[in-house]
């Protein structure tokens, strides 16, 4: 497929030509040319009339299969452009949906993509019906008025059916999530701009080989893997990547997937450090906007500056400093910035930062466990070592163990016949930090 791209820059829209061309290539298009214009939106054609004439000439000369706008087109603009160009015209979000259709593998992902596509089609069909009544067009995709109206009814029926199926999937995921919490897992979600290296980071943390490619939107299906941080059991979930100005209809369609971020104990916001600072800042803002829309900014947020193996150490340090300042300016609380290379599995900074954050989680607390029966001590110690972090042990008439424990595991401890008391001042947590030498997966 061959395409001509169009980008209209304005004060209201921050668009990147490089990102737009990467989107086109990710969708499988050969980019014949990209037409650019600086101006505010024209109500009829999106671009100005003079630039439209230039575009018509390009279409006659290059004969593309499609003209793709980086800007969002209204249904009326899409129709007016088609009427002038006589070639299929789509915008940035239809292009993203085409990529999604290629990447979706699981039943859930396919349903989410279909729902987003149908939601996008509704205003187009309504515009077609309006124009039919004005005698301006034969119908939607060549259909007459009656067929177009019936198609609109079918879209709405299908959307309702998909939403019910996704609700069932959501309920099943919630059951799995609760079971994971009950057995002592900490839930970590990877979030961030598309192609920042989230899947590669998941592979590095969990020692896995989930598909990771240098292209946009490789991951549409949620992937959850286990890894150990010291003796703490952690589940890390990869989610669909963000993009600047992610429209509400895509957020809604992928809500059950993005909910993994909302339900997580910690969110890792992954950024590509090898990009220029201006791009990093733009993508950080875009990611924060999505997290704000999801109401996930109340979670402990760790910024992961990935791909530091591609830049100088001083550059990485400076970008980490600038990200800290930017987060403060945006009023976003972050736990810190970890500089890593997921590809090279250089994750020390991330491990250390996660260790500190985990101990501050509400579901993780410092407790004194009193074991009165000496025969139970070995079993209790083994259990605590597998689900928590032992700080100290005092032997005597009774054994007193101070430990950090995931609160979901307290019921299991109680069944072992011990007494449990939360410590107000656990003290000397630094001793724990000194013992944090080895992490599985490093």
How does this model look, in words?
The structure is a single chain. With 442 residues, this protein is α/β, with parallel strands linked by helices. It has 4 domains: 2-101, Rossmann fold (3-Layer(aba) Sandwich), CATH 3.40.50.11060; 104-164, no CATH class; 184-358, Rossmann fold (3-Layer(aba) Sandwich), CATH 3.40.50; 364-434, Alpha-Beta Plaits (2-Layer Sandwich), CATH 3.30.70.240. Helix content is 46%, strand content 20%. The protein has helices at residues 17-26, 49-62, 75-85, 92-103, 107-133, 145-182, 198-206, 248-253, 255-262, 277-293, 313-329, 348-358, 377-387, 410-415, 429-434; strands spanning 2-9, 30-38, 66-69, 88-91, 186-192, 223-229, 232-238, 266-272, 301-306, 336-339, 364-371, 388-394, 399-406, 419-422. The strands form 3 sheets. A 6-stranded mixed beta sheet has the order 6-7-5-8-9-10, with helices on both faces. The protein has a 4-stranded parallel beta sheet with strand order 2-1-3-4, sandwiched between helices. A 4-stranded antiparallel beta sheet has the order 12-13-11-14. Helix 1 (17-26) packs parallel to helix 4 and helix 4 runs antiparallel to helix 5. Mean pLDDT is 85; it is low at 426-442. Monomer. Associates with the 50S ribosomal subunit. GTP binds at residues 192-199, 217-221, 238-241, 306-309, 341-343. Its cofactor is Mg(2+). Mg(2+) binds at residues 199, 219. It is found in: Cytoplasm.
């Amino acid at each position: 497929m061959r395409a001509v791209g169009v980008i209209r820059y304005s004060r209201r829209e921050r668009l990147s030509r490089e990102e737009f061309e990467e989107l086109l290539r990710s969708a499988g298009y050969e980019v014949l040319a990209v037409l650019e214009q600086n101006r505010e939106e024209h109500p009829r054609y999106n671009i100005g009339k003079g630039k439209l004439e230039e575009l018509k000439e390009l279409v006659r000369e290059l004969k593309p299969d499609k003209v793709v706008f980086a800007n969002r087109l209204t249904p009326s603009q899409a129709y007016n452009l088609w009427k002038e160009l006589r070639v299929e015209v789509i915008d940035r979000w239809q292009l993203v949906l085409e990529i999604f259709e290629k990447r979706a593998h699981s039943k859930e992902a396919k349903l989410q993509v279909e729902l987003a596509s149908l939601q996008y089609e509704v205003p187009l069909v309504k515009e077609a019906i309006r124009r039919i009544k004005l005698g301006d067009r034969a119908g939607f995709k060549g259909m007459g008025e009656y067929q177009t109206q019936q198609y609109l009814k079918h879209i709405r029926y299908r959307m309702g059916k998909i939403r019910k199926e996704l609700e069932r999937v959501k309920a099943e995921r919630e059951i799995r999530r609760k079971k994971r919490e009950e057995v002592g897992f900490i839930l970590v979600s990877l979030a961030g701009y598309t192609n920042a290296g989230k899947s590669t980071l998941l592979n590095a943390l969990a020692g896995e080989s989930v598909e990771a490619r240098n292209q946009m939107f490789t991951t549409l299906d949620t992937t959850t893997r286990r890894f150990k941080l010291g003796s703490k059991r952690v589940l890390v979930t990869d989610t669909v990547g963000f993009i600047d100005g992610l429209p509400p209809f895509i957020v809604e369609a992928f809500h059950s997937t993005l909910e993994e971020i909302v339900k997580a104990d910690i969110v890792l916001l992954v950024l590509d450090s090898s990009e220029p600072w201006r791009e990093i800042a733009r993508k950080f803002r875009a990611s924060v906007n999505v997290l704000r829309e999801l109401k996930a900014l109340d979670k402990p947020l760790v910024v992961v500056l990935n791909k530091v193996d591609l830049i100088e150490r001083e550059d990485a340090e400076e970008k980490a400093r600038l990200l800290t300042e930017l987060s403060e300016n945006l009023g976003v609380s972050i736990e810190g910035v970890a500089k890593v290379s997921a590809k090279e599995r250089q994750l020390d900074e991330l491990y250390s930062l996660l260790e500190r954050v985990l101990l501050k989680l509400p579901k993780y607390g410092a407790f004194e466990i009193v074991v009165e029966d000496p025969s139970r001590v070995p079993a209790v110690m083994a259990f605590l070592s597998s689900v928590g972090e032992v700080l100290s042990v005092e032997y005597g008439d009774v054994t007193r163990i101070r430990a950090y424990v995931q609160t979901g595991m307290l019921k299991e401890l109680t069944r072992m016949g011990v007494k449990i008391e939360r410590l107000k001042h656990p003290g000397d947590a630094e001793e724990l930090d000194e013992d944090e030498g080895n992490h599985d997966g490093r």
